[in-house]
């Protein structure tokens, strides 16, 4: 059996508050192979915090514990910060929600992609430029030589997100974490980005963690899905089997979705159970 790219066991993240410790993530466990793993849930359910814990990018106020947080043969929990600087971008890439807040506004987009390559490979400037242009072409940007010299404010939302994907893939990581990477895009551009991510996963054999609120999107795009509620996983199933979900929280989320072909006067309200 092929070992997983990433193994997470009993991940817990807490913050101190005036009323005592607050558990943001409570006992999350999963393995990631060369697949598209969706993580869905409401805002505050711990999805993004789980992704940041994998990269050791949680806030300083956070306390992180886990039985295992393993990337291949590397224990991420005990890895020195110098090692993590190599891991971030080289072995694990993170695509954020809005490229406007992730790209440097005073540096051309091509130079930013080239910089990501040079940091992790120590290649020459000429080699980095060549790799950056090739990667811009790989993410289907027309005239990559011209776009290389452009700045973030000259990019549309879709182009900016493609630049972010190029920056994360230029160092050929094993794992890609996409945190609401398509939520700020219109429907047409969103489909283009999803097709691009799907192609990159299949061609490069990546493991993709796709964090989203959109159950319909995850249902059709991912291979497997984790449903999170108040910091822990309440259900795990194949994405295509989402309609057969058994947990009442998952059922409640599905029932609360608007339906174009079967409009309802009022959407049902999710009834929460303290035992969840």
Describe this structure in words.
With 276 residues, this protein is an alpha/beta fold. It has a single domain (33-52, 80-255), classed as P-loop containing nucleotide triphosphate hydrolases (Rossmann fold), CATH 3.40.50. It is built from nine helices and eleven strands. The protein has helices spanning 47-54, 81-90, 109-121, 125-138, 144-148, 157-169, 187-204, 215-221, 248-255; strands at 6-17, 20-32, 36-40, 62-65, 68-71, 74-75, 92-95, 175-179, 207-212, 224-229, 232-238. A hairpin with a 2-residue loop joins strand 5 and strand 6. The two termini are 33 Å apart. The mean pLDDT is 91.
Radius of gyration: 19 Å
Give the N-terminus to C-terminus distance in angstroms. Answer: 33 Å
What is the domain total for the residues? Answer: 1
- Write down the overall geometry: globular
Fourth CATH level, the homologous superfamily:
P-loop containing nucleotide triphosphate hydrolases
How large is the share of residues in beta strands?
Answer: 15-25%
Secondary-structure arrangement, i.e. CATH architecture: 3-Layer(aba) Sandwich
User: Biggest β-sheet: count, sense, barrel?
Assistant: 6 strands, mixed
CATH C-level: Alpha Beta
Mean pLDDT: 91
The helix count comes to 9
In CATH, the topology is named Rossmann fold
Order of neighbouring strands in the sheet with most strands: 7-8-9-3-10-11
